[in-house]
Design brief:
This protein has 464 residues and is an alpha/beta fold. 53% of the residues lie in helices and 8% in strands. It has an eight-stranded mixed beta sheet with strand order 1-8-7-3-4-5-6-2.
């Protein structure tokens, strides 16, 4: 079966992309807030049957990606790094693949920043000194904007048309996206201009250099049939990882459609006074929403249901995140009320890397580089505004964080793996990165501390 899937994977992916893009391009043109509930219900049913229930291709590619990534890891350990002197070699070989769709939004913002920085000095000064709200308000309401300013406005409008579905926590439908508030990308562009962090060429050259050095090491280590086998596995891994990231980008796009579709339903429910706010729609299940639209609902007043779930969600937000690995049985939900059970009992299977030096934290090498600098510890993306060459430290990232990466000198992530989004994009941007850092990264480090990062070894040394 695996051999058959491998032989057909190119055909499977091509068909999926063609079908997906056709349906996505139709849906993205719809303004959901103007449609009646009956029409919105039909659109959801179409979305579910023609897109969401045909998500086989990404799952199949993930299966192949795990297989080839695992084989590459084994071969690298067995044939190349027997002495464990190069922990990041496998990741270095995956750098610079190119054609990663999720990096395109950031590169487009970098091009806009370059145009602003090299353009009219007065317009540049106004852009970096004004707030995002002031900038957007002037562009939208000014009757006679300067020609260069108008050109930048249209470039950002084009960006929003292509990538406006992106946002922080973009796989949570309740989160506002860039269509609602473009402040994040305007802030990112201003940061690129201030720090001159918009050279795509230098990023690509660094990627190629890392990849080239890693390939040279392989060529010096193995020859004959091992050489051909290793590079064949490497090429399959590169292709699978790239496809995996691009298919994830498709997932983000369809989540953007779903976000606006359900918000349209929420707007209609609010007009009917079934809900107090269109955002309350996200506290209902899909079945509850469709049952109400179709006249099958057990209740005509959904406000008490929403109020109950809002209260439960508020309690959930106060609880600490669970450990990376744990085992449960029986009434699993009850453990949410007693989170200490997950940490203090034998249910926890969490593993961590232990080192003797208390000033050292260890993680998984992702993209190499040795840097020494000040850290910026962020709980939310707003904490990272104005970052200027500092080392970004966070518990986790998601695709919406990527525009911050060009203005960081390094990235340290408490959770994540070598195939996580932050890892893949960091490799493509040549950003020294360590993921999966154990030992209490977010509690041990404070903003302003100085650290030395050896991303090739996965080591963070606290200096101050």
């Amino acid at each position: 079966t695996t051999i058959y899937i491998f032989a057909k994977i190119n055909f499977i992916l091509k068909k999926f992309k063609n079908d997906f893009n056709h349906k996505y391009n139709q849906l993205r043109e719809i303004y959901f807030s103007n449609l009646p509930l009956s029409e919105l219900s039909k659109i959801f049913q179409t979305l579910e049957s023609q897109v969401l229930k045909r998500w086989h291709a990404p799952i199949i590619n993930d299966y192949l990606c795990m297989i080839f990534f695992g084989i590459l890891k084994k071969l690298t350990e067995k044939w190349i790094t027997k002495d464990n002197t190069n922990n990041s070699l496998q990741n270095d070989l995956l750098c610079g693949e190119g054609d990663i769709e999720s990096t395109e939004p950031t590169k487009m913002l970098m091009k806009i920043a370059e145009k602003i920085d090299l353009g009219d000095p007065i317009s540049r000064q106004w852009f970096i000194q004004s707030t995002p709200i002031e900038i957007w308000k002037k562009w939208k309401h000014s009757t006679t904007p300067e020609q260069e300013s108008l050109e930048i406005y249209h470039l950002i409008k084009s960006f929003l048309d292509l990538y406006g579905f992106r946002c922080i926590n973009e796989l949570k439908l309740e989160e506002p996206d860039l269509h609602d508030d473009p402040s994040f990308i305007i802030h990112a562009i201003a940061s690129y201009v201030k720090t001159k962090s918009y050279s795509i060429k230098s990023i690509e050259e660094r990627e190629k250099s890392i990849r080239s050095q890693a390939e040279s090491l392989i060529k010096n280590k193995i020859s004959g049939w091992r050489y051909f086998v290793y590079f064949w596995i490497l090429n399959q891994t590169r292709k699978a990882v790239k496809n995996r990231e691009n298919l994830r980008f498709s997932r983000t796009k369809i989540f953007g459609i779903a976000r606006h579709l359900f918000r349209g339903i929420g707007t209609a429910f609010t007009k009917l006074e079934v809900l107090s706010s269109c955002q309350d729609i996200y506290f209902l299940t899909v079945e509850e929403i469709m049952a109400f639209i179709e006249g099958r609902s057990l209740s005509l007043d959904l406000k008490p249901v929403v109020a109950l779930r809002k209260n439960e969600y508020a309690q959930f937000r106060k609880t600490p995140p669970p450990p990376d690995r744990f085992v449960t049985c029986g009434a699993v939900g009850m453990n949410c009320l007693y989170s200490q059970v997950l940490f203090d009992s034998t249910l926890s299977n969490s593993k961590s890397t232990v080192v003797d030096d208390p000033q050292i934290l260890m993680g998984t090498p992702c993209c190499p580089g040795i840097i020494e600098g000040i850290v910026r510890v962020v709980e939310s993306v707003q904490d990272a505004y104005g970052i200027n060459g500092e080392i970004l430290v966070t518990a986790r990232t998601d695709p919406g964080w990527v525009p911050l990466f060009p203005t960081c000198s390094g990235l340290l992530v408490e959770r994540g793996s070598l195939l996580s989004h932050s890892a893949v994009v960091a490799r493509e941007l040549g950003l020294p990165t360590i993921v999966g850092i154990s030992g209490g990264l977010m509690t041990r480090l404070k903003t302003g501390q100085k650290v030395r990062v050896d991303a090739g070894k996965g080591e963070v040394r606290i200096l101050t």
